[in-house]
Write a structure and sequence with these properties.
Length: 188
């Protein structure tokens, strides 16, 4: 049996969190927080597939939380919701927080469940991609070690310089691909 995806709901209004827990607890492992700081603490302690945060909260807005989440937990899928049509904050969240979607209150319960299910699938794909990247990095490092050993070998054999160049280029390419995840927006 497959584990339920873990989601984190963030809102400073307990009634909204309570109603969301009732709606979502069958399909997801639901974590809740009433502030951005509390959300970041939960994310540091638990792997979270989807962060769904309200925009308008005291101390840290949803856009600010999404931005910090993007930097600290880049694989977590981020969704912003609000009852206000504050387009400036939505644009900021999209540009700096790598939002997956933006949702307005009130939402249709079935549509919300579908959205969170899709967002969790995005997280799973990102996690599988990251695992593959980690494996590739390990293999490239092993190849570089082997090439170094061959180059320094005591039998006097010279290693093909093109082969060595390929190992080094693959390592640089992998590093470039890894650095592309959640790049900050220009001027950030």
């Amino acid at each position: 049996m497959k584990a339920k995806p873990a989601i984190l709901l963030v809102d400073d209004e307990p009634d909204i969190l309570h109603s969301l827990i009732g709606l979502l607890r069958r399909q997801f492992t639901v974590h809740t927080a009433q502030s951005g700081e509390e959300a970041l603490q939960i994310m540091a302690e638990h792997p979270i597939a989807v962060l769904m945060t309200d925009q308008r909260m005291p101390e840290m807005t949803g856009a600010e939380l999404a931005k910090q989440c993007c930097r600290r937990f880049p694989n977590t899928t981020r969704i912003l919701f609000t009852g206000y049509a504050d387009i400036k904050s939505v644009i900021e969240a999209i540009n700096t927080g790598g939002l997956y979607r933006y949702v307005t209150k009130p939402w249709d319960p079935d549509d919300l469940i579908d959205l969170l299910t899709q967002a969790a699938e995005v997280y799973e794909k990102e996690a599988a991609h990251q695992k593959l990247m980690d494996e590739m990095q390990r293999y490239v490092a092993m190849g570089q070690q082997i090439s170094q050993q061959l180059r320094l070998g005591s039998d006097g054999q010279q290693v093909d310089p093109d082969l060595l160049q390929s190992f080094h280029q693959s390592g640089n390419l992998l590093e470039d691909l890894t650095n592309e995840t959640c790049k900050p927006a220009a001027g950030d």
